[in-house]
Amino acid sequence: MKKIILAFICLILYSNKSEAQEVVAKSKNSSLSWETADGAFSWKLSGRFYFDAAKYFDDKTDLGNGTELRDFRLGVEVKFEKNWLAKIDAGLAGGVTAAKDIFLQYGIDKVSYVRAGHFAEPFGLDYMESSKATKFLAPNSATEAFAPGRKIGLEYVKWGNKYWLAGGLFGDGDLNNTSAGDEGYSVTGRFVFKPIIKEGSIVHLGLAGTYRTADAVGFDADGNELTKNIRYRSRAETHVEGRRFIDAKITNAVAETKYAVEFIGALKPVALQAEYFGASVNREDSFKTYTSNGWYAQASWQITGKNYKYSNSWSRLSDPDPKTLELVVRYNQVDLNDSGADIFGGLQKDISVGLNYHVNKSVKLRLNYSNIDLDEYALNGKENFGLIQTRLQFAF
Length: 396
Fold this sequence. Notes:
With 396 residues, this protein is mainly beta.
């Protein structure tokens, strides 16, 4: 936490280095920023908090109804020397400080950049998307199981009217390098083809892939390297009840290969999004390769009749306008069972329905209902349960 606070202070101190120039405060799209009169230097504050409440309708597992501060973040973004950008975003929920986006970025031109630091690998739409703009309170379980999330890395991004591409080299998720031995690394890329992109008429086709070596977990008393593992697991479309009901731990792992196929489409106020994930884990010679998969499909409808829009620079749907009421529905399936490898992590199928009311640029009210169906290899065996959850969301 001290390191993150120190980084905040350094950026703010650097922001005061305006060489006695006039500094102008600006407010746009619910954000507050400051800029020197010549426009050569600016910095912007950001923050968010989400309050969630959930009610569960139990089956065999005694689920914990409750409330939580799901997310609480503070951040600062600094632009300087024309093409440079630095960002620090720290999560403070749960009584701990978590590093979110922390990176330095150089803009090559208006449609490409390179960045280095800690940020999401270009894999999995719900993890690349800000939680401020996802359609449901929780990411779909397929994305949670297979998407790598944030890592330390170096990435190149470029886009045009008909395409978007990114590729990068990443380390593991252990920011403080607490595990002895060689950490894993990954090569991850994503390409999107956008044959039709205009307001109310959108077609997006994407393909992402990643290859990652297994992370070291230390050494035994004799100095021998411990067996490496790779793990896929997911919650049940909720975070108030934090247990993961499907969980596959693949022992004697060498490396994993994953791919994702994306689709986004929109016609006026109706949008569709779907993604299929495939994963394969190579293991030591005497152990069979493990394979698993998952997918989801979701639809959304702006009841107030406004058309969906698209962000070229992020290659995904833009957030709806203020005063929009949005109906969303999603089906998700994740299968972590592989009889050939004798690993049974469980099968989860679920369907969710929700309402999002975009009060203004900063405030959203959300309501979700989900039904979860689990097989005999899940945490407590075969069961089916429902849940209702709601969120008060503020972000600037």
